[in-house]
Amino acid sequence: MFNLDSVRSQFPILQQQVYGKPLVYFDNAATTQKPLCVIERERDYYLNENCNIHRGVHYLSQMATEAYEHARRTVAAFINAEKAQEIVFTRGTTESLNLLATSLGQMLVNEGDTVAVTAMEHHSNMVPWQQMLKLKNGRLLVIPMDENGIIDIEAYGKILEQKPKIVSIAHISNTLGTINPVKKMVEMAHQLDIPVVIDGAQSIAHHKIDVQSLDCDFFVFSGHKMYAPMGIGGFYGKMKWLEAMPPYQFGGEMVDRVSFEQTTFNKVPFKFEAGTPNVGAALGLEAAVLFIQSLDREAVEAHERMLLDKAREGLEQISGIRFIGNAPERSGLVSFIISGIHPYDMGTIIDKMGIAVRTGHHCAEPVMTFFGIPGTVRASFAMYNTLEEVESFVKAVEKAAAMLR
Ligand code: PMP
User: Fold this and answer.
1) Widest CA span of the chain, in angstroms?
2) Strand blocks (E) in 238-340
3) CB of 237 within 8 A of CB of 99?
4) Mutational pocket test of ligand 1: of 31, 32, 202, 358, the residue with most ligand atoms within 8 Å of the beta carbon
5) What digits encode the pLDDT tens for the residues 219-265?
6) What span, in angstroms and rounded, lies between the C-alpha atoms of 115 and 160?
7) Could you read off the pLDDT of 30-82 as tens digits, one per residue?
8) Is 363 in the active site?
């Protein structure tokens, strides 16, 4: 079962006060807080197991290697990858997408080709593709959305007819909260043999992910948005792609045989993990996965949905409010502006009331351009948030709006 008090007790950071007020942490889309089991796992690694991996014959090195590979197996099972080797560890979503844009891009994209992304992408799922395409005189095709933040599926079908080499799409928008119909989008792309990358940065902590059922070619994620440490994340890739793709970075660990004339590369996934990885954080990621799995995930999802619905219900009463993102299928966050009030001013004032929200363009400037706004106030929720926190947040926004008008 899901016991909110017991979950909160795992996150001591939430018990603090800021400016003499209880902290209400609603910036979970930027990063989640870490439970004690994650912090302790990383600490324990450095206290007892720290060693470089995959290269020592001695005891500690073998222990650390086994622990790291165990973490890979745990992550693979968490998202239902068929094989542990289909999980590549990176620093997170951004590094995963740079790796894919470079490696998969280098393999598939020729002069003048295109890659399709949606109109609601985070910069991390757009700029790497855009920059790679520049080198090939290619361009991005943008899958449009409507005023509610819903993907235009018909337009997507037309874009696919232009034969982009890769489709790369957010599972959940970090700005609008829209849950995109990724399974259907994968199906449509596969009818034309186009591989699909899913940016799962905002979905993996909140919804059950099954990469085999999604049938996506790649699924990228960040640990720090799923209760794990910063500096770790990775991606799932279908074996047929990982085997065919060239390495992204070169150096130790990713090689097989090396001479001054020639180098052959290690097998998947090590081919993509050059240099010493963040072993401690990978073990923290495993602890985070076990933590999530120890809870009733449906109950957690229902709790987070309740927080979102109550926040919207409360905010709706405030005059001049405009929600940015009104797709019926949405998750995890509410983004809004209030007429005549700059989001930054709102964020600064409610911060003094103890409430941590994000303001600005949320690394999605084209989304702001589309809506003709400078930014939004974004409140994003996690399993440890409470209804009382939502109520204080709504009151704080009301009060700040009255002060700023
Ligand atoms: N994509 C999405 C949808 C995101 O929300 C984020 C983080 N805000 C990223 C990519 C980038 O993630 P990271 O900074 O962890 O690499």
Assistant:
1) 71
2) 255-258, 263-265, 321-323, 333-338
3) no
4) 202
5) 999 999 999 999 999 999 999 999 999 999 999 999 999 999 999 99
6) 10
7) 999 999 999 999 999 999 999 999 877 899 999 999 999 999 999 999 999 99
8) yes
| Secondary structure (3-state) at 347 | helix
CA of 59 to the centre of ligand 1 (A): 37
Helices then strands, counting H and E runs in the chain, come out as 14, 17
What 8-state DSSP symbol labels residue 83?
-
What is the per-residue DSSP string for 262-276? -EEEPPTTGGG--S-
Distance (angstroms) between ligand 1 centre and the Cα of 124 equals 6
The token pair that represents 333 in the structure block = 């966050």
Residue 170 Cβ < 6 Å to ligand 1: yes
**Ligand 1 binding pocket includes 174 (Cβ within 6 Å):** yes
User: What whole-number distance in Å separates Cα of residue 39 and Cα of residue 253?
Assistant: 27
Residue 135 Cα to ligand 1 middle (Å): 24
* Minimum CA distance residue for ligand 1 atom 14: 94
Distance between CA atoms of residues 355 and 347, nearest Å: 8
Q: Which helix (H) or strand (E) holds 116?
A: strand 114-118
